[in-house]
Amino acid sequence: HQPELVITGNYHDTWPGGGWNSPDHKHTGRAVLDAVADAGNRWIFSELPEEPWSGVKYVAVAGSPISTHAIDVSSTMDQAVASLEAHKAYLEALGEHPMASARDFLEFLADMTAPRFGGRRASGFELVRF
């Protein structure tokens, strides 16, 4: 596959609103950015017979504190909740943490993003250009 857009999670130290981001999220986001930047470098992947792919034009960083773009999630909230609820063991391990309620957490995030993007529930993204 040779994508023009790659999506990753927040690599910044904080989330929108100032909450501290966890190391696994930060490092994964940064690793994706590094991988996209290096994917087209022949000298890094000289053993591969395929030509390197340098066609990724954008990385969309979900949950960035400096989101510049957004997707309206009003009509897909139930699907998002069902997807997160599939991580049952993870949610149960959170105990009384506010994130343990998939619906409450996802609606909070979408509502927090809404004022910056036309008032509709949205998922915000920082668009990094390559």
Taken from the alpha-carbon principal axes, the silhouette is globular
The parts where pLDDT drops under 50 for at least 5 residues are: none
Strand content: 15-25%
Count, helices: 4
Radius of gyration: 17 Å
Any overview of this molecule?
It is a single chain. The chain has helices at residues 23-38, 77-85, 88-93, 102-113; strands at 5-9, 58-62, 69-72, 122-129. The chain has 130 residues and is α+β, with helices and mostly antiparallel strands. It has one domain: LmbE-like (Rossmann fold). The protein has a 4-stranded mixed β-sheet with strand order 1-2-4-3. It is built from 4 helices and 4 strands.
Describe the structure concisely.
The chain is built from four helices and four strands, in the order βαββαααβ.
List the defining traits of the structure above.
alpha+beta; globular; four-stranded mixed sheet; 4 helices; 4 strands; single chain; 33% helix; 130 residues; Rossmann fold
SSE blueprint:
Elements: E1 5-9, H1 23-38, E2 58-62, E3 69-72, H2 77-85, H3 88-93, H4 102-113, E4 122-129
Parallel strand pairs: 1-2
Antiparallel strand pairs: 2-4, 3-4
